[in-house]
Amino acid sequence: MSRICVLGCGMVGSAMAADLAANHNVLVADKNKIALKKIAENVENVQTAVADLSDADAIADIIADADMVVCAVPGFMGFEVLKTVLTQGKNVVDISFFPENPMDLDYLAKKHNVFAVVDCGVAPGMDNILLGHHNQEMAIEKFECLVGGLPKLRVWPFEYKAPFSPIDVIEEYTRPARYIESGQLVTRPPLTDCEIVKFDKAGSLEAFNTDGLRTLLNTMSHIPNMKEKTLRYPGHAEYINVLSESGFFSEEPVEIEGKPLRPVDFTARILMDNWKLKKNEKEFTVMRVVIEGKENEKNKRYTYNLYDETHEASGISSMARTTGYTATASVNYLLENTQPAPGICTPEALGAMDGACDYVINYLKDRDVIYKKEETTLN
Hints:
Layout: E1 3-7, H1 11-20, E2 25-30, H2 33-42, E3 46-50, H3 56-62, E4 68-71, H4 75-87, E5 92-94, H5 106-111, E6 115-117, H6 126-135, E7 139-151, H7 166-174, E8 177-181, E9 184-188, E10 195-199, E11 203-209, H8 216-219, E12 225-232, H9 236-245, E13 254-256, E14 259-261, H10 263-275, E15 283-295, E16 298-309, H11 318-336, E17 343-345, H12 347-351, H13 356-366, E18 371-377
Parallel strand pairs: 1-2, 1-4, 2-3, 4-5, 5-6, 6-17, 7-12
Antiparallel strand pairs: 7-15, 8-9, 10-11, 11-12, 13-14, 15-16, 16-18
């Protein structure tokens, strides 16, 4: 069995550690003693380590004996954690979705002769894997991904619960959205171009611009039309825009009783309570990926639909399952098959590897995370 170290024991990190422990020796590290105690009591073959993952020396000690590392820290610290792991010469799969450009660490991975599969969650992640696979088979003209995680119970005003740190969600809501239209890079404010889209089981949801294409903007620049939108219940974007326009997401400190305070930190702390999933609260993940292009002289469309809910028996959230199990599938594929060359490996590059896409889809299916595929021949 391989030795795998999971950095982060939050909602997704703990789900990944438990999944990997079925076939590997797993060490999971976090500063949250309660989370570590819970997983140690409920999952066999898992060791725990209390550690401050912002401390590079602490990370170096924890991962020293690992055959592979999985990064599941909040986005705001993800870049530095990945940098530390690569410096220690460890192969890694990362889901932290940090705002920095992961390709900035390509030189470091190559220097230490290791690889890092980045953005390996549900989206970015699974949608990239699908695109990378089809890019090997067809001349793609259009790629669109609509994705969101939502609570089953709609509670005013936001009707949303964050599976990740609120500061990471705010960053997604404030970063300019980039997409490709007719071969041209378009930059729009986030939360714009709202449209209502209907989904089976989920109903009518609001789709708006977010900056989710990330590495695809460079690796798939030959595709003339690419867009990613986030899904929420209708009206969510307006409430978020009110906060944004009112300065609640500002990173410029304001003085309150003689002490500087960043409005975004205050807002994130308030939203942490509002957006936190309550115990036994049900949520779901919905995603639709559309890929169109010419294949074998025919115009084809491939549509992948995902609808997944909190797992009834285990209580593991849908976002933890759809995000985490994509990463653990990738870990197992990489341990069982030819590994990528040293450097940063994007999920679309992983999807282009022999058998990787089918492996991940089947791995997810075995865990009841099911992508329904539709193939259409267009006129």
